Amino acid sequence: MRPTLTPHLVGGLNKFGGGGAPDHITDIDGVPIDDLIERFGSPLFVLSEQRLRENVRRLISAFETRYPDVVYGWSYKTNYLGAVCQVMHQEGAWAEVVSAFEYEKARSHGVPGERILFNGPHKQREILERVVAEGARVHIDNLDEMYTLEAIAAEVGRTIPVTIRLNFDTGYTEPWSRFGFNIETGQALDAARRIGNSPHLRLRGLHSHIGTFILDTRAYEAQVRIMCAFMETAESETGCEIDSIDIGGGFASRNALHGTYLPPEQVVPEIEQYAQAICDTLLEATRGRTARGKPQPTLILETGRATVDDAGSLISSVVATKHLPDGRRSAVLDAGVNLLFTSFWYNHRVELAQPPQGIPEETVLYGPLCMNIDVVRASVTLPPLRVGERLVVSPVGAYNNTQWLQFIEYRPNVVMTHGGGEVSVIRQAEDLQAVTALERMPVHLRSVEAGMSEG
Ligand SMILES: *Cc1c(COP(=O)(O)O)cnc(C)c1O
């Protein structure tokens, strides 16, 4: 056997040298991994209903115990599989959508218009007409959208209550200035004035989403202070009454961003820490206002990845192994960036589903695509892998089941575990029929005979 040197890394990054962490896992949510693969094939996404419910309950309770009036809107783009959304809605979540498609999907899940928050820069007249008729909350992104809403309101002879999206510099995050109206340049106050002067619109809410995977809770304190200051100004200058402050999403999940050396357990705040920072600041910043007899604004949350990420795992099988010219080990898996879009940002946790055999070494994990960029982990310390062995990649519940690609490969089954060993398919594996169902063949291309009979 070749001698190897395994560097000791502080913080348990090298779990095989670190001790304490289990050397392999045998089940997900109590269901044996072997059974899951036998029944549903490999690769396989597994979502835990129980974990989802625990996460959403913990989020809502962290905020409700610190602030009197809280609404949670489930961010559809984070994972809009019907079963996932339904768990969220059963737990009381509204829907937060950013397109006509997501709006229609939320309605198809039975969510009433009044419980839908409609964000995003792309809202055309047709969908706005429906959204207005159904009483959903429109979060205006730009002036053109405002003009369209005004025209619709004039046509139906109503005054529409609206929310505007704000952008600003918190001092802790890269400003996302492409969405909404900017505060520093006066654009946001102009928008508020314009709404104040319109007989057809009424400003009732403020929204902002300052970024994603935000590790510093001070960014939220700054966000809330800036939004509350703007609320005071808008109310006194335009006479509007703001009834809700929507702080968007952005809480980090227990995942490891590329380039972060400390493990997530050490750098990702607990949900309660985010809640404490946000609610304390909001109570403080609205004290003067409530003293003047105004009601406390509703606090709206649109948390995405922090609620669903750790409820999802992906089981993948080793298809082949080889040594790279520089001596590193590598393995080809049956799941790659086609299914794990988030491996472009995260070093996901990779666990063995069988006992380790042999000495751990640096290994590259490739996906199945015939593409150089298809890398699941560029460097991970693993014992020698054999064809047919399984790895469990996690957390993968956020953004993968929405951003995945039908590219080169079929997308696999997605199952949900319900506790007590119960498992259901919540999205079937694709086959040729599913993938080609929307293709249409022009008549003169329907036969290959011409080409086949040549020569
Ligand atoms: C994507 C998005 C969210 C959810 O963001 P996370 O970082 O996943 O919490 C919430 N609100 C808006 C407007 C978004 O675009």
TrEMBL record:
One of its GO terms (biological process) is lysine biosynthetic process via diaminopimelate. Its cofactor is pyridoxal 5'-phosphate. Keywords: Lyase, Pyridoxal phosphate. InterPro entries: Ala_racemase/Decarboxylase_C, De-COase2_N, PLP-binding_barrel. GO terms for molecular function: diaminopimelate decarboxylase activity. Residues 54-308 form the Orn/DAP/Arg decarboxylase 2 N-terminal domain. Its EC number is 4.1.1.20. CDD domains: PLPDE_III_MccE_like. It holds the Pfam family Orn_Arg_deC_N. It comes from the Bacteria. This is Diaminopimelate decarboxylase. It comes from endosymbiont of Tevnia jerichonana (vent Tica).
